[in-house]
Here is the input.
Amino acid sequence: MTYLSLKDVSFSYPNGFQAVQHVNMSFDKGESAAIIGQNGAGKTTTVKMMNGLLKPTEGSVIVDGWDTKDYSTAQISRKVGYVFQNPDDQIFHNDVYSEIEFGPKKLGLSEEVVKANVLKSAEIAGVTDFLKENPYNLPYSMRKFVTIASVLAMDSNVIILDEPTAGQDPGSLEIISNMIKTLNNEGKTVITITHDMEFVANNFERVIVMANCQVIADRNKRDVFWDFDILEKALLKQPHMSKIANALQIGDKIISRAELIKEIKKVQK
Amino acid sequence: MSIISIKNLTYQYPTSEEDVLRDISVEFESGKFYAVIGANGAGKTSLCNAIRGFIPHFYNGELQGDVLIEGRDIREWELGELSTKIGYVFQNPFTQISGVKDTVFDEISFGLENLGVEESEIRSRVADIIQLLEIGHLQEKNPFELSGGQKQRVALASIIVMEPEILVIDEPTSQLDPQSTEAIFSIIELMQKKGKTIILVEHKIELIAEYADYIIVMKDGKAVLQGNADDVLSNEQAIELGCALPQYALFGIEMKENGMDLGTIPLTEKKAISAVQHLLEKRRVTS
Here is the structure.
């Protein structure tokens, strides 16, 4: 069932700059999707409308039956959590525990529930070892996980991750990958903005492509990564293994190493 | 001759409980492209700080071993002197923007103004860099109104405009889309062609494989593996050290495991494609 939908949504900033034009998309509970596209394509503006940080100038955003125009960001953030692109825009406490605790505390949850939420979120985001640390003593990439945990602790049904893969090492990418699976299994919707095409290829089925303030594709990753017209419009590249398959003209919309190796085996025989 | 020579460098920030750099020895030759890779928290940024003299000049603490820039001890260099020799591009572009300039053009001029360069020369050099980095559409904007990716390009511009001999660049593409990322790499390559020494911290391993000459792998404050890019990036040991191998190398390794040895571990798209073509042709000829 549709939990979150954007209906013919446009957004202009007060200075008149139009960042999003006539965007439609909807998400079911427990679904996961990647949003990809160039810097400045309108990705962040689009997701900021999903949790009411921005209200559409045209069209409507419906979350669990609520039109975001009629509710405050604080109210909507119980249903949709947004993790900022730059962790330093979000962090304002002196220790990691307090940072994570702030959200659920504000929701008025009981002390035990708050504590349980904090510990569980810290575990999922891999920051359990740093709960007593000052977030600013942690490397940038780890601060990102602190902000992710802070949003998870609100236990919202939708989680939006804005470039969680930026500057992450392989180990951290694996934490993010596992986290998305865990949240999906719990019935949560996860929407992820990323520039890492390999991460998209490995972790998502549904891919939404934005270019010039609009959605230009919303379909399975194979159909996106093998549609050269779409890739060119969005200035995106195929995943590495697709590039090899394409150059050799083998297989059917190959994405992964395993698929490519299997196909070469077949061709060799 | 080495332009930078690091010998048995060990260092601890005054506030940290243990050494962040442990017994590191690396030689940097003039005009080469070095990539520093490894897990987050491995000490990559600290190594950059040692090279640009912020360790020990700014952070204090005791530096053991030696860091020599053009043969001269880092402790003897003045920070101001070093800043004309070594340009440093911050990991987080939000940190680098000066905050005292209202337009991107002025922001990029800031360093040259501080060096006392003549105004007409500043104008022409800044205009050249703006053109080179394709940020003409941003030049009248306030640096704080830019997106993360745009800030990252302005941060790079404001350093390379100063024409330092050595460029230390800490994750310059983390906020950038794939196309802008490749654009940054080609600019860095251009800097190398102009004879600059490049020291780059970066996670995007496929691009490193394409551009870097030499790789230094860091883990827990140590330089655990270093060598020519071709050797390091085809070395499975690197995976155990927490760093990624290029997808193309992993593909080559897995092909071998599947009984289809490519005869080489390819590091780049081009090499992978030609290796597979070669394999398929060989099969056709023998069968």
